[in-house]
Amino acid sequence: MTFSMKLNNKKFYQLLLCGAILLGPTACSDFLDEQDPSNLQPDTFYTIPDHAEAAIAATYADTRFFGDGAGIFSANWQMLEAPTGTATTETGQNSDLNNLYALIYDGNTGHISNWWNGLYRVIANANLAIEKIPGIQFPAANESQKVRLLGEARFLRAWAYFYAVRLWGDVPLITKPQTAESEDFFAARTPQEEVYKLIVEDLQAAEAAGFADFNTNGRVSKMAVKAYLAKVYLTMAGFPLSKGQSHYKLAADKALEVIKYAKANPSTLGLFATYKELHDEKLKNRMEHLFQIQYNTAVAGFPLNDFFPNFKAVTYSGPSGTGSTVPTLSFYNSYETGDLRTKDQDGWFYTSYYTNGTGDKFELGAPYVFKYFNIAALGGPGITPTRLNNLNVNQMRYADVLLMYAEAQAELGTVDQEAYDAFKAIRDRAKLKTPAIGTFTPASFKEAVWRERWYEFAYEGITWFDMVRLRKVFVEASKTFDNFVGHKNMNVSGGAALQEKHLLFPLGIQEMRNNPNLKPQNPGYQQ
User: Fold this and answer.
1) I need a labelling partner for 80 at 20 to 30 A (CA). Which of 132, 160, 297, 369 fits?
2) CDD domains annotated for this entry (predicted)?
């Protein structure tokens, strides 16, 4: 993909990392030299194509709220892991995080407000771009650039609303830039059905916006949009909308489009051969990585460091790390015998490492998450660590597309060869034997796919949303599934049970005080 106005991929990445273009002067604002950046306002900023490029780059950068801090030893992303039952903590200093683990969180929990503010900032900047970019004069030869930029804005808005509607249900549906004078400045909540309608419309517009089929530059691609459409349709088919067969068919069809592209372009899109490649910094935005949040230590370093064990010398930093999100032993032990994902330093976990990253091997005493361990940055045998952890954060992997297709086909009552092959590809990489296709019924195959999703996507911010859309939770002891409501996480003191209210998060108390039109609070939580 070529950029007009001399904006190449390197320039876009620079803008993407600098991010806060609209908020004032930055070291990355050389392209704004025709005006004093500190005096820029929306009406004066959106005047040339470079401004549109910068605005979209800033909106991408806003997605990094995902990794922002949420009090001592915690970050926003942990909100999606703590309630799943697959994780626990080795520290106790953060009461908000402890409440998430204990399933006693409420509208005062800091992570929840951070997610609300972060998502609506993405939405606000996307809305501004969607309104202002059409008025910018683009050279006739570059009209496709305008269409692409608008498509990216609509994708990012859909990305944010898809999180919001799954976290809180009915949420304010804001599609225009707001000021204090706007009629809907204190917006009321919109039924989920209408929110999903906008998400689908935005993604369909993005799909038709002329994106590259696959991108390695951090921008969304056509295949990424198709993958998101498949996930949105699959979610709509389940709870709470319960669209059923029609949307399982839509999900299967859209996932199959991505699978067919991967088969036709095996050197561009597909599964990595090894798990270590998934956290190889040189392979960011490539192959299996359909869409990632972009990180670079020059602006924002990789934010999943709370997976490090508590004060164990696994990196060049020596005894450090918080251990505030670590695997539960019961979940780790539930993997099939021989599953490569549990092999020390080969799969998702490590049970030993090297003192200060490069020294003598020592036992950790428990399994920890190796899925994001950047060996080049942190150290390994014979490796001098760079100390610059520039890994990205996964949002959509090709593995998800394969298992979405397999699940949707099973829900449609068909275990066809394509669905079986998709399921088997995940297990093949894990070095597991897969029963023959004829041994499955649609029902048993569907449950096998669910189980594979728990194992494949652990600690990727996916499991919680699977629990909610299925209203099912994996039972580690029996390797079967419980109903969501009433399921007890035995790793929580007292065996706290999931309740009906936990299908949604509460709205932040401060947000409800600021905007009385957000009432009522989600059921089961205090106003």
Assistant:
1) 297
2) SusD (cd08977)
Please say whether the beta carbons of 228 and 162 come within 8 A. Answer: yes
Token reading at 309: 């064990």
Q: Note the helical H segments in 208-309.
A: 222-237, 245-264
Residue 209, amino acid: A
Compute the C-alpha angle 94/84/368, nearest 5°: 70
DSSP symbol at 499: -
Q: Please report, to the nearest 10 degrees, the dihedral formed by the alpha carbons of residues 364, 370, 372, 377 taken in order.
A: 60
- First and final C-alpha spacing in the chain: 49
Tokens, residue 58: 């800033």
CA angle 122, 123, 126 (to 5 degrees): 85
- Contact criterion met (CB below 8 Å) for 300 and 75: no
CA 123 to chain centre: 16
The 10s digit of each residue's pLDDT in 144-185 is 999 999 999 999 999 999 999 999 999 999 999 988 788 888
d(CA 193, CA 195) in angstroms, rounded, equals 5
What are the pLDDT digits (tens) for 63-111? Answer: 999 999 999 999 999 999 999 999 999 998 899 999 999 999 999 999 9
The two three-digit tokens of residue 140, written as one number: 């006739």
- For the chain, count helices (H), then strands (E): 16, 8
Instruction: Give the contacts of 408 (CB within 8 A, at least 6 positions apart).
Output: 230, 234, 237, 248, 249, 251, 252, 255
The HSE-up count of residue 2 (CA atoms within 13 Å, CB side) is 6
Whether the pLDDT of residue 126 is over 70: the answer is yes
- Maximum Cα–Cα distance across the chain: 69
Cross-strand pairs, 353: 362
pLDDT tens, residue by residue, 214-243: 999 999 999 999 999 999 999 999 999 999
How far is it, in rounded angstroms, from Cα 465 to Cα 516? 28
